[in-house]
């Protein structure tokens, strides 16, 4: 006899939270395989594009000092 979804949920309610977290990770892992690599690849391409845009004069960069001043102002420092 197959175990029902309700039975699995009821059993999971009795497990420690770290075991439930691992169970969820294992269930979801196949759905997300490659997504970290895809995200990394996309960010690398975006960074390269932004660097190229600055080098080509398409956009102006912001100095570190200006960036830090803005951050301090935003943080109220």
What would your notes on this structure say?
The structure is a single chain. The protein is mostly helical and 77 residues long. The chain folds into two domains: 1-33; 35-75, no CATH class. It is built from four helices and no strands. It has helices at 5-12, 17-32, 35-55, 64-75. The longest helix is centred in the middle third of the chain and has 21 residues, at 35-55. The model has no long low-confidence stretch (mean pLDDT 90).
Features:
77 residues, mainly alpha, elongated
Helices, strands, pairings?
Layout: H1 5-12, H2 17-32, H3 35-55, H4 64-75
What average pLDDT do the residues reach? 90
Strand element count: 0
Helix content: over 70%
**How many alpha or pi helices?**
4
H/E series: HHHH
Which sheet architecture does the biggest sheet show?
Answer: none
User: Which range does the strand content fall in?
Assistant: under 5%
Please give a quick description of this structure.
The protein is an all-alpha fold and 77 residues long. Helices cover 74% and strands 0% of the residues.
